[in-house]
Target: Exodeoxyribonuclease III
Amino acid sequence: MKIATYNVNGIKSRLPRLLEWLERERPDVVCLQELKALDTGFPQAELQQAGYHALWKGQRSWNGVAILARGAPPVEIRRELPGDPADDHSRYLEAAVDGIVVACLYLPNGNPQPGPKFDYKLAWFDRLIEHAAGLYQSGHPVVMAGDYNVVPTDFDIYNPKSWRKDALLQPESRERYQRLLQQGWIDSIRRLHPDAQVYTFWDYFRQHWQRNSGLRIDHLLLNAQLAPALQAAGVDAWVRGQEGASDHAPTWVELDLAKTGKAAAKKASAPKAAAKKPAVRKAAAAKTPRA
Model:
């Protein structure tokens, strides 16, 4: 099974790119973020024609999350992150797909910081950590996939110096991400590619895509029941180079579901030797003419 996460940065304007990627890569499950559309504006018919059932929770102009699945429809578990009934942001969706619990999340950006937006980011992260502890211990195979808006370490960004004041690199943001991992979650990319420069986001400024000046902020975390099934992980970076693309690229894992279940209790203590696919299909600046 191939599970992917993709911040589409506006599903209406990016739909051609989304459909192109789905046809070429054929992921089985997809977590989408930043739909930037109301529920009525979700392209259900187009995605169904492409072979995907969908759950979604939209919001006008920003936020919005969805879970796509080929074959059987995803079975909804919850439509919001517990802990704050007053939070009306569409940032979390949870469903069961082929026996796997799939949590799709769009963690707040938090800029500018300090300030109320950063405070909201940290409070949301604390709620996620609390909920994630229950998911991890549920006994079910679980993946938490999405745009975490956190650069875990300086190795996960092309140049940390120019981003030091950004909410994505703040010690409080990184500490919470590490606290999440300390529950036992496996960061799929780092488990299989501990020494590779892997990016999932390149902003639209200063030719960052052409120069491969990226950040790793899209993550797929696996619990103990699912981690032994991990076979490959990577980024479909070619999508970012398409005309009218999102500033994110789809990030994915490939799982051998035969290795879930009771065998998953025996957690691997060492990283896997190699993935079946390269971690990133590189941006190759030399092939992209600069403006």
